[in-house]
Design a protein that fits this description.
The chain is mostly helical and 440 residues long. The longest helix is centred in the last third of the chain and has 35 residues, at 303-337. It has one domain (10-439): Hydantoin permease. The relative contact order is 0.20. The chain is built from 19 helices and no strands. The structure holds phenylalanine and sodium ion. The site of sodium ion has 7 residues, from helix 2. The site of phenylalanine (PHE) has 15 residues, from helix 1, helix 2, helix 10 and helix 15.
Amino acid sequence: MAQRESWATRTGFILAAVGSAVGLGNVWRFPYQVGEFGGAAFLVVYLALIAVIGFPVILVEFTVGRYTDRNPVGALKQIGTSSWQRIGWVFIVAGFVILSYYSVVAGWVLQYTVYGLQGNYAADGAAQFGATTGGMMSVLTHAIFMAAVIAVVGFGIRRGIEFSVKLMVPAIIILLVGLAVYAGTLPSAGEAYAYYLSPDLSTIAENWTSILPAAAAQAFFTLSLGMGVMITYASYLGEDRNLAKDAVIIVGLDTAIAFTVGLVAFPVLFSGDLAVADIVEIGDGPGFIFIALSQAFSNIPLGSVFGAIFFGTVTIAALSSAISIMEVVVSYLIDERGVDRVPATLLIGTAIFLFGVPVAYDGSLSWLTVYDELANNILLILGALLLSIYIGWVKTDIGLEELGKGIRNLGGWGTAWIWALRVPVVVTLVVILGLNAIGA
Ligand code: PHE
Ligand code: NA
């Protein structure tokens, strides 16, 4: 077999991981989850979970990936011969389900970029969104997006993924910051900041049984955790980097970018004549950013230009995430089945495209919800829980050894990390799975 690939540069890995993390989760899913689950109350729980669960779990994935130099299925096989191996399969299934609908939504984002270029955002955003989702056009944009994913992943780690994220990630950051500056000049920016930045916490206690699972699903989704992306990307790391430092950068950037998206969206919404009541009303569904933002852009001078830049930026962010999901499944075929990269990519890409067709074709969004809930409420949480138990309780030595490699004075931090996995992470994830089971 050919020598296994690796990242060419130190920053390549970080950029790829940031590219994976920053995507539709930040721009499309986050705002409507906030709208659906109690606004700032959701935000507070979400941020707490990022710190308490997200950070320890990303380190588990990094250590497992770098220790084994394998795809997620192969990684678990290498660590032990027990039935824990099957965790890898949860990851592969989750990747399959997530990419199939992620690509459909990314196709809509592409469509909204085109609407902007055509100066074509409708005053009735809901009608335009209804006409965009469902039918052959939606299948076509899904196909175009998957073709782009196949093209990048087909070129491999250095020439495909690393090369493209080096262009995409800086572009995403620069464009978003630029858009935030532009949004700050809009007439209702002050009013919008006041709305966005003043939390009302009274709802957490009353609604925690719905907020907690939803916030956890969002935390895993946004950090690309629980399906082996970070295992796969860390498996291409040759050197002993300080994984904790990289984790802080990646988690910090993902969170900062989600925050920045709000600094763009809310001034646009308010300045495009959407009242708080309208925003809240549209805010609790997958159509939110499409309907509300395009409608607002239609009311702002040069709105279609900035709308095209906004949705174009989101298309790039979605691509840099989608390639990471695809790489999980492709790396499995390459490492474990000896398939060459190009046929593996074409095969998996086509299968995922077909699996997403019902979501694309169905105009009601009910398939979308089924796929999204299966993946995020169950598969990601289950994958992360099993892996945290395995490393936290069973293979502790492997985690500690690997984490310690790039860190000179690990000291008590290693033990603190293991105990964070053993109790807070495991207990919280069990509670969340339980709540989802009751809710289902
Ligand atoms: N983190 C990505 C986003 O926020 C989505 C994703 C989920 C990517 C799971 C990989 C794995 O858009
Ligand atoms: Na994200």
